[in-house]
Amino acid sequence: MLSIVAVLGNSEVYQPDARAYQYRHQADLGEYWYYENFPLSVQDVVYFTDHNSSQSYFVLLSAEGDVYHFASPDRFQERIVGAGTTADDSKFYGKLLKISQIGEQLYACGAGGQIYARYGRNDWKLLTDRVLYDRVADENNLANEEPEAMTPAWFEWVQKRALNPVARQVVFYDIKGLSEDAIYLCGTERTKPILCFWDGRELHELNVPLTEAALTGIHIENAESVWICGREGVILHGSRNRGFAPVNADTRLNLFHSITSYRGKLVLPASVRPGGLYELDPSSGEFRRFQPPLPRLVSRDDPESIDNGPFFAQSVGDVLWVVASKDIFRFDGQAWERIEHPDI
Questions:
Q1: CB 272 within 8 A of CB 307
Q2: How far apart are CA 329 and CA 4, in angstroms?
Q3: Maximum distance among all alpha carbons in the chain?
Q4: I need a labelling partner for 213 at 20 to 30 A (CA). Which of 30, 173, 250, 289 fits?
Q5: pTM of this prediction?
Q6: Closest CA to 267 of 248, 288, 246
Q7: 55 to each of 28, 33, 107, 317, how far by Cα in Å?
Q8: Phi, psi angle pair for 219, to nearest 5°
Q9: What is the rounded distance in angstroms from the CA atom of residue 274 to the CA atom of residue 271?
Q10: Any residues with CB less than 8 A from the CB of 117 and at least 6 apart, and which?
Q11: pLDDT digits (tens, 9 = 90+) for 245-263
Q12: What is the pLDDT of residues 47-56, one digit of tens each?
């Protein structure tokens, strides 16, 4: 079973609108697709195992901090108080972007250095404010010191402000962990990469041997083997104890979105420059396009499509799922199958 969240082509850009699909590859009575519409700007979906109720189900995360649980028999929706930019309780840190299960808990992260942990039903709290955006300090600094716009003094003020920011502007794109006291987060702060480690008590900022980068995805092989991917073809390998180093491979300028392991190799979907589906052999260091090659994307023939994908790849047992903007593929270890979607 696969869960996909999409937006309709005629949706308003700034109007929260999502359609959540579930696809069953071997369905009874020929009913393969199910969907529901949500007035949410959905950013991520995770398959959650609730140890309290002994059931597993999909959970949606919106940019504004809404968390929708497809629980059975009663579904429910939660709110991460303070998250987002438009809700009455918002602290204006920015959008939430990622949700993950680590151990028995759910965690969410996003812009403004936001990191939240779920301790129970309707019980989300900031994990730490270590790198949290201080909006009040930023606004006070802007209001008290800004010279007249476009004057020489104003240009000098802008430059000084950029070099000496009052508030941190961290964006976390991913959060993964082996346990509640061994959690990695990656992202960017302005143009610089940021990689953090939560040890159960405090957040540590780790050294990244890059001057500019945006780190987008994390894959944890084991405690001493952690893989990080990002924009401009970035792949890092290491651990909190060993440190991290760039992988020496011809990755070009691919925008990698995530890393998943499949049959002893690491699979990375990339959307642009040049984009496609790639595989990295950790034992040999060989980096190449996934073999057999991913079939041609439908969106490659769409002149209005800018970022075609693939954006998502995940392995489940012996099966690899890959999703692009208008394509869904399933690989069973032998051949690719193009999954037909009812709305495309």
A1: yes
A2: 12
A3: 72
A4: 289
A5: 0.91
A6: 288
A7: 21, 22, 18, 20
A8: -130, 125
A9: 7
A10: 105, 106, 107, 124, 125, 127
A11: 999 999 999 999 999 999 9
A12: 999 998 889 9
